[in-house]
């Protein structure tokens, strides 16, 4: 239990340091700053694999599946890459939400900070629930597998990123719960006018991002559970990937057109993980195979986006 408490304490410390020291004052996050922070978060996450090795080699965490330190590290890195790659799709949606609600770049980091704080809580609950389901009902893994295949197919065929968040079901329900104003007051989430407290566009964007992240978690968490049902590995890999999402957003959101093929990588990853779940009781792939497939799919999508120019023909719309 102290391992969990220690990890959560470290995460809280990182978040407090982020908002209270490094981003105490609102400012526009430039590409160079975003690149530095992305490198820092990736380094922290990959370095944590050493902690995973130590915890499992010393038997300091529950190990119901009897993982060796080597397998634990491979599962952690694979889970981290899955969540990191699926987070890229999140970036496109966040960009659309900010654009729709006209959130200035000056306040976007603040909105993302609180959005990710809420995401950590919800992800933790969903992970514990998902692990409990798999441990109690072994057949649920087939349900997760089919769900991921359906998600991959929908991602391939749909163009959800073009949708206006203001026309979404989430926004319409939010309007029924709290008064909403189009007026902004600095970085405040609420303003009071004539005795009525109303939500500003910042709060609306925060709520839409928060609820959208929960929907994304329905894809990413089953995907990681296909790699391992160890709760600490699933939680740590998921949370460390989420912590780097803010800097990743500011790094690649300005280059959305260049990553027009990345969603095909995500389709391949989701389809592969879904099939792995469906055949988990019949085919046992080595950990390095899953890691290789995910890494190659992600790199291929990035390289295709960078190397295939629009001049060479009509570029298909992003799924």
Automatic annotation (TrEMBL):
Keyword Flavoprotein: no
Topology with respect to the bilayer: Multi-pass membrane protein
Transmembrane segments: 6-22, 34-56, 76-99, 111-133, 139-156, 194-218, 224-249, 261-282, 288-308
Keywords, in A-Z order: Membrane, Transmembrane, Transmembrane helix
Membrane in keyword set: yes
Localization in the cell: Membrane
Lineage top rank: taxon: Bacteria
Signal peptide range in chain numbering: none
Family that this chain belongs to: Belongs to the TerC family.
UniProt name for this protein: TerC family protein
Organism: Pricia mediterranea
């Amino acid at each position: 239990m102290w391992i969990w408490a220690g990890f959560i304490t470290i995460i809280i410390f990182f978040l407090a340091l982020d908002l209270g020291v490094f981003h105490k004052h609102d400012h526009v996050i430039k590409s160079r700053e975003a690149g530095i922070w992305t490198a820092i978060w990736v380094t922290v996450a990959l370095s944590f694999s050493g902690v995973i090795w130590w915890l499992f080699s010393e038997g300091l965490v529950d190990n119901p599946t009897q993982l060796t330190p080597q397998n634990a590290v491979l599962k952690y890195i694979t889970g981290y890459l899955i969540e990191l790659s699926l987070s890229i799709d999140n970036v496109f949606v966040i960009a659309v939400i900010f654009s729709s609600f006209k959130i200035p770049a000056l306040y976007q980091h603040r909105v993302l900070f609180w959005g990710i704080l809420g995401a950590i809580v919800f992800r933790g609950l969903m992970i514990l629930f998902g692990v409990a389901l798999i441990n109690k009902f072994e057949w649920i893994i087939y349900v997760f597998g089919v769900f991921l295949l359906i998600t991959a197919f929908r991602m391939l065929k749909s163009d959800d990123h073009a949708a206006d968040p203001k026309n979404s079901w989430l926004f319409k329900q939010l309007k029924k719960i709290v008064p909403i104003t189009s007026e902004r007051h600095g970085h405040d989430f609420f303003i009071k006018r004539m005795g009525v407290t109303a939500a500003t566009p910042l709060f609306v964007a925060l709520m839409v991002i928060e609820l959208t992240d929960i929907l994304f978690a329905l894809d990413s968490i089953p995907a990681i559970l296909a790699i391992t049902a160890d709760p600490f590995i699933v939680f740590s890999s998921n949370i460390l990937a989420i912590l780097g999402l803010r800097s990743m957003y500011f790094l690649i959101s300005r280059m959305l057109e260049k990553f027009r093929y990345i969603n095909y990588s995500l389709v391949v990853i989701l389809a592969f993980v879904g099939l792995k779940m469906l055949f988990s009781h019949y085919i046992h792939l080595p950990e390095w195979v899953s890691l290789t497939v995910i890494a190659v799919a992600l790199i291929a999508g990035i390289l295709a986006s960078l190397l295939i120019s629009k001049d060479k023909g009509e570029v298909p719309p992003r799924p």
